[in-house]
Amino acid sequence: MNSDNWWPIQNADDIPTPCLLLYPDRIAENLDRMIAWTGNPSLLRPHVKTHKLSEIIKMKLAKGITKFKAATIAECEMVASAGGQDVLLSMQLVGQNLHRFLKLMAAFPDVKFSSIVDDLPHVNWMMQQLVSSSGSLSVFVDLNVGMNRTGIAIGEPAMNLCRHLNRLSLGQKRIKFEGIHAYDGHLGIPDMNELMPKSHSVLESVLQFRDQLLAEKIPVGSIVMSGTPTSHLVAAQRSENIEVSAGTTVLWDFGQPLTCPTLPFLNAAVLMARVVSRPTSDRICLDLGHKAVASEMPHPRVQFLGLEDAIPVIHSEEHLVLQTPKAAEIPIGTVFYGIPKHICPTVALHSHAWIVENNRVINFWRVQARDRVLTI
Ligand SMILES: Cc1ncc(COP(=O)(O)O)c(C=O)c1O
């Protein structure tokens, strides 16, 4: 794998812009680095929302990674169609989505599907639906470990929910209690001295909670934890058998190293854009609007390779205007490559990703699970 000048493509003239380029050799290297952390692919449950691509699921499977986390039913279907055997949907099943999920389970009877719950009345509603549709479902309890996005508080509320689930597991068997899901997305802290005690305290609270369940003879199948910033700290606790659910590590971007400067991943996704106009003597306009790069954060949203000093001044649906003293020297049609700040929502903006090997586009992959509905 060449490391200098790995991104430009020799057949750029054949490729329309704006587009997303993916580099499978670098993806493979990132997967190897993830596996090296846990020492065992069975302790990885990577989140697939980062790439939404069945080809990357196949790459993961080939490396022995068999468990996956997903955020949408379309992602679950994409994983199952690609051969994944164990998919956790980390989203509460509300409304029609419960019935869609049951249909998905029926369509892939050999795949182990599970979801998350964090509310007792919601569990009872699910139970009624399952009884009337003769379905059954495996669930993880979603703990709120400080992000305050979803989850139930550790302590009596979560204990009561788990006791209830355990009773249901032993009773009609329509709901099976699988284990604990705890996402610590609030711990994007670059300073390791600050991050380590906070991450350890979350870990301790989750392990204590597990021990309380075990003390009441409530079996805990698995614990699924962490995003990228804490994944190496959680992965280090090998004897606890925690499944690490980092997602961004596979493609990387320029936002992650700002939050996790010590993590060793390679950029494996690049945006390609062209100059479409030079509206003033110190500005160029690229065809990379916010319909081609995630824009939920302030600028800079792209780090352009070879144009690091350019300042973004206008960003609209299909245009990105950069201010640069080099503008006069840059002809219309010039190609620029850039690393997005946030790769996950950027991938979701592209219907296809162009595949680069040895500095040439050789193929494209369809970003299947960017659709909200595949077949179910
Ligand atoms: C529930 C859940 N688990 C895991 C992840 C993966 O985290 P990261 O993007 O830091 O790799 C996310 C990211 O949004 C998430 O929402």
Description:
The protein has 376 residues and is α/β, with parallel strands linked by helices. It has 2 domains: 24-251, Alpha-Beta Barrel (TIM Barrel), CATH 3.20.20.10; 269-370, Lyase, Ornithine Decarboxylase, Chain A, domain 1 (Beta Barrel), CATH 2.40.37.20. Helices cover 31% and strands 25% of the residues. The protein has helices at residues 24-38, 54-62, 73-81, 96-107, 120-133, 156-170, 192-215, 228-235, 256-259, 343-347, and strands spanning 19-22, 67-70, 86-92, 112-117, 137-144, 152-153, 175-182, 222-225, 242-244, 269-280, 283-286, 302-304, 311-315, 320-323, 335-340, 352-357, 360-366. Strands 1, 10, 11, 12, 13, 14, 15, 16 and 17 form a 9-stranded mixed sheet that branches. Strands 2, 3, 4, 5, 6, 7, 8 and 9 form an 8-stranded parallel sheet that branches. Strand 2 (67-70), helix 3 (73-81) and strand 3 (86-92) form a beta-alpha-beta unit. The radius of gyration is 22 Å and the shape is elongated. The chain starts with 18 loop residues before the first strand and ends in a 10-residue tail after the last strand. The mean pLDDT is 97. The chain binds pyridoxal-5'-phosphate. Pyridoxal-5'-phosphate binds at residues 47, 69, 90, 183, 185, 227-228, 245-248.
